Structure formats: C-alpha cells, structure tokens
C-alpha cells in the first residue's frame, strides 16, 4: 500500500476499503506507529496538497478527514493493549485554542493507550483555563499538545508554563508537522519533549524515562 492509495480511499469516503488497507499492513507486521506516520499522515498530507492546489473541494477534504477519523478509531480498537495498567500511568491530550486539527493528537493518544496508559483525549480547540482545570483534576504524568498552524504557536509558552506547574509535574510532549520546518528551541523547557514523528513517540514510550513516569505512583 502507498499513502496515496489510502488517500484515495478516504476521498471516496470508502471506510471499509481504508480500514482493510490499514489492517493489511498491520497483518504484514507494520507497527501502529509506522502505519500512522507513513500511511495516515502521508495520506492526509496528500489530501491537503490536493486542496491547496484546488484539485478537491473543502467538502472533499472534510469527507477524507471524517473517514480517516472513523477508520483510525476502528483500527485502534483492534490493537492489543499492554497489561498491567495502573493509576500511575496517565496522559492527557488536546490541541491549543483555535487549533482544529486533531488527527495527530488522536494518533499519539492511541499509541499511549496501546502501551497501557490511562488516557484522556480532550479534543481540539481547548482554552488554557479549561486545560488547566482538567489537568488539576486528572493529574496526568504526561500532557500532549498539538499545533499545526503557525500563528497558533504564540500560545505555546503560556500553555507550557502554566501546565508544568500542576501538582503532578507532568512531562510535556509537543507534536507538530511544523517541527520539520521551524526552529522550536524557543519553546523548549526542562520538561518538554518534541515529537517529530510517531515512530519517535513509540521509541520514547519504551524509554527508561517513560518507564519511570509510569511507575511513579505505583
């Protein structure tokens, strides 16, 4: 399968075919992180380029996104979870205020769930005040933020500064397609980890640092 083949299934609104394509690659031994990066992300990038070039309409792009969202949830539901989930393994995910693109955030959250973490997905466009309240109630070990639009980056410093102060002292994960295009060092803090690709996230989930976070409250 290629990302473009998956993109065509999404643009056709053919959720059954799109799911079968992902399932086929998983059956061949491809990891969820590999599938998310090379097929799903690649396909949505192709869809975006078609829209920018006026080769598809806004309605077509929305159909592809909605179909992808459905197929991802279905695909995620069949992936085995690691055993031994505990209250000390908690992660929270959302996108910053006015950021509506949430597929990347969902795929990151799915990888955490598959690794045995307890996850809360708060969706797109979450104002900081609500994010802070949710974090204080849930007390996650990890908070994942997603940003895809350049002019939304100006919000990041305040989000990071505020959320790092909650009682659980969370590690902040920042995912963005912009990481390969812009210098993010001005957003770097002692507890911020940049996630350029889903395969990088999969490696981090297996790292000693994350194992320590998972076991912190056991």
UniProtKB/TrEMBL annotation:
B12-binding N-terminal domain residues: 1-87
Sequence intervals crossing the membrane: none
InterPro entries the record matches: Cbl-bd_cap, Cobalamin-bd, Cobalamin-bd_sf, Meth_synthase_dom
Cross-referenced Gene3D superfamilies: Cobalamin-binding domain, Methionine synthase domain
Positions of the B12-binding domain: 88-218
An example molecular function term from Gene Ontology annotations: metal ion binding
UniProt cross-references to Pfam families, sorted A to Z: B12-binding, B12-binding_2
Protein name, per record: Cobalamin-binding protein
Originating organism: Paenisporosarcina cavernae
Organism phylogeny: Bacteria, Bacillati, Bacillota, Bacilli, Bacillales
């Amino acid at each position: 399968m290629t990302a473009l083949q998956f993109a065509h299934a999404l643009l056709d609104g053919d959720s059954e075919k799109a799911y079968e394509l992902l399932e086929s690659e998983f059956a061949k031994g491809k990891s969820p992180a590999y599938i998310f990066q090379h097929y799903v992300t690649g396909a949505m990038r192709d869809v975006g380029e078609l829209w920018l070039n006026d080769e598809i309409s806004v309605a077509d792009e929305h159909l592809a996104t909605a179909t992808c969202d459905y197929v991802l949830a279905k695909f995620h539901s069949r992936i085995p979870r690691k055993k031994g989930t505990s209250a000390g393994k908690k992660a929270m995910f959302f996108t910053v205020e006015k950021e509506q693109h949430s597929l990347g955030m969902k795929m990151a959250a799915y990888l955490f769930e598959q690794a045995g973490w307890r996850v809360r997905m708060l969706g797109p466009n979450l104002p900081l005040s609500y994010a802070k309240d949710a974090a204080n109630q849930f007390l996650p070990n990890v908070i994942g933020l997603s940003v895809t639009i350049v002019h939304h980056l100006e919000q990041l410093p305040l989000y990071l500064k505020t959320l790092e102060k909650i009682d659980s002292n969370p590690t902040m994960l920042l995912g963005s397609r912009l990481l390969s295009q812009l210098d993010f060092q001005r957003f770097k803090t002692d507890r911020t980890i940049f996630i350029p690709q889903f395969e990088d996230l999969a490696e981090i989930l297996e790292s000693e640092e994350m194992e320590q976070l998972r076991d912190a409250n056991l």
